[in-house]
Design goal:
- Helix 2 packs across helix 4.
- The strands form 2 sheets. Strands 5-4-3-6-7-8-9 form a 7-stranded mixed β-sheet, with helices on one face. Strands 1-2 form a two-stranded antiparallel sheet.
- The chain has one domain: Rossmann fold.
- The chain has 6 helices and 9 strands.
- 25% of the residues lie in helices and 28% in strands.
- It is of the alpha/beta class.
- It is globular and about 50 Å long.
- A hairpin with a 4-residue loop joins strand 8 and strand 9.
- The termini are far apart.
Length: 204
C-alpha cells in the first residue's frame, strides 16, 4: 500500500511511516479485511465508509504541508477512527467529533489498544465544530457538506488549513483547501472526490 501511495505522489515521510505502521485491518469488520489495502473506500455501517488509502494520505498531506507547524487538528467525522489514528501517529494532538455515538466508542477502544493517547473525543453535530478547544492549526472533514461550514472556518488559527470535500453525493464533489488569513480566508479547489454526505444532528 505504501509503495502505491508513493507512486500516486504522496511524499510526506511521517504520513508514509504512519500508514505503514498502522494495521488498517483493525479499523474494519473482519468480513472486509481481504480488501482493506485495496485502493477503494469500504463500508463501516450506517451508510458511512472508511476512505481509500490515497484519500486519507492526500488529505493529511495537504493539511500537514502548511507553512506553520500543525500541532492541534480538529477532525469532523471520526468514523472507524483510522484518519484520527494517522494524524495521531504523525504527532498531532487530535480533537475528533462524531455524530454517531457507537462509532465514537469503538474508535476510542481501537485507539487505546494501539496506545494512541493524543486523541480527544466529542459526540456532537460536526457542523458546529469544537469552539471550546479552538483555535486549530488544521481541520479535516471526512464527509461532504453542500457548502463549507462557516463555523469551522472561524475555528482556524491564522494560517490554519481546512480540508473539506464539498458537494452533493452522486454529483461532482470537490476537495477544497481553505486557509485562514489575518482578516478572511483563501479558497483553493483540489481533487475531484466522492464522499458520503455530512449530516447534522446526533445519533445515540
Amino acid at each position: 500500500m505504501v509503495g502505491r501511495l508513493r507512486a500516486q505522489g504522496i511524499t510526506h515521510q511521517k504520513i508514509l511511516a504512519a500508514m505503514s505502521t498502522l494495521a488498517r485491518e483493525l479499523f474494519i469488520d473482519e468480513a472486509l479485511r481481504m480488501r482493506v489495502y485495496d485502493d477503494c473506500s469500504l463500508p463501516i455501517g450506517q451508510g458511512q465508509t472508511l476512505s481509500q488509502p490515497y484519500i486519507v494520505a492526500r488529505m493529511t498531506e495537504v493539511l500537514l504541508s502548511a507553512s506553520r507547524p500543525v500541532q492541534r487538528v480538529l477532525e469532523i467525522g471520526t468514523g472507524s477512527g483510522y484518519q484520527a489514528a494517522v494524524l495521531a501517529q504523525c504527532g498531532c494532538a487530535v480533537f475528533t467529533i462524531e455524530r454517531i455515538a457507537s462509532f465514537l466508542a469503538v474508535a476510542r477502544e481501537r485507539h487505546r489498544a494501539l496506545g494512541l493517547f493524543n486523541i480527544r473525543y466529542l459526540h456532537r453535530d460536526g457542523f458546529n465544530g469544537w469552539p471550546s478547544q479552538a483555535l486549530f492549526d488544521g481541520i479535516i472533514v471526512t464527509a461532504a457538506p453542500r457548502n463549507v461550514p462557516v463555523d469551522l472556518i472561524a475555528q482556524l488559527a491564522p494560517g490554519g488549513r481546512l480540508i473539506v470535500p464539498v458537494g452533493l453525493q452522486g454529483a461532482a464533489q470537490r476537495l477544497m483547501l481553505l486557509t485562514r488569513t489575518a482578516t478572511s480566508y483563501t479558497s483553493q479547489p483540489l481533487d475531484t472526490v466522492s464522499f458520503v454526505p455530512m449530516l447534522s444532528g446526533e445519533q445515540f
